[in-house]
Amino acid sequence: MVYAIQVAKTGQPSVLTPVDIKLPELQENEARIRHKAIGVNFIDTYYRSGLYDAPEGLPFIPGSEGAGVITALGEAVSDFSVGDRVAYAGSLGAYSEERNIPAGMLVRIPENVSDEQAAALMLKGMTARYLLRETYKVNAETTLLCHAAAGGVGLIVGQWAKALGARVIGTVGSTGKIDLARDNGYEYVINYREDDWVARVGEITHGRGCDVVYDSVGKDTFPASLDCIRPRGLWCSFGQSSGPIENFSISMLSQKGSLYATRPILFHYISKRWEFEKTVEELFSAVTNGIVNIQINQRYPLEEAAKAHMELESRKTTGASVLIP
């Protein structure tokens, strides 16, 4: 039997329930992984709360990224070997000691990247990568604003954008997170709970506005984010940690300066194997070359998954969080 955390009904973090499960028979295209570390992400809370429907319904095991060691392989798998260190992102079922997963979702972990780093960087790192390299191609002429600058994605965005030569502005929800953001690439950091952050962005950009705003906060930062963008700039809404955006009118984009808006998700950028490999290669290269430092600031035993969710949702965390089986 395998220890896991299950959601039988959606709701508050208390619905995360320890269970013992029996793994199904390994299919020919699958690998069995013994987890060493499991990533914790806001999307996990969306599935747990019922904001998002789990693809296979209830009950389900949450978690979409992890890292570990292959312990068994299906007959058709030839690209990996038992004992390989691997990581993955994208398939529910990570909150468990072991799991079966299609081998096509796996990547080998470089020697100089730890299991914890790999578990923490897959979703957040690949998200930062598509935001900066594809959703809006950031370069030395770019001025950007990133909300939740001290969060897991935010810290990676700050470091990577600075390396690309961009002018990087960030917002945080408390004064205690300001120095952390500054240490990770942000030239300017604004406490959006205490300061008039729209006015401050205007001052920093001398009234021009930003080329792009990366917004994972949602309700609390909309529609004010639109007032921080230059005419024909981009508003990129890629999360909703404060709640979903309601009453969005597309005419608002014309009123604010013929703005562009997008609501991207990672899996549309890595749906093909070659896209996935390209993304991971660029991400691991950024880590191994010192452009991005993956900061794991919270570690929880797997049995404390509910605590991890509570602290994430209350914004007590910074950087990445992992569960340790």
From TrEMBL:
Alphabetical keyword list: NADP, Oxidoreductase
SMART domains, per database record: PKS_ER
Domain Enoyl reductase (ER): 11-323
UniProt key word ATP-binding: no
Protein name: Quinone oxidoreductase
Organism: Microbulbifer spongiae
Lineage, uppermost ranks: Bacteria, Pseudomonadati, Pseudomonadota, Gammaproteobacteria, Cellvibrionales
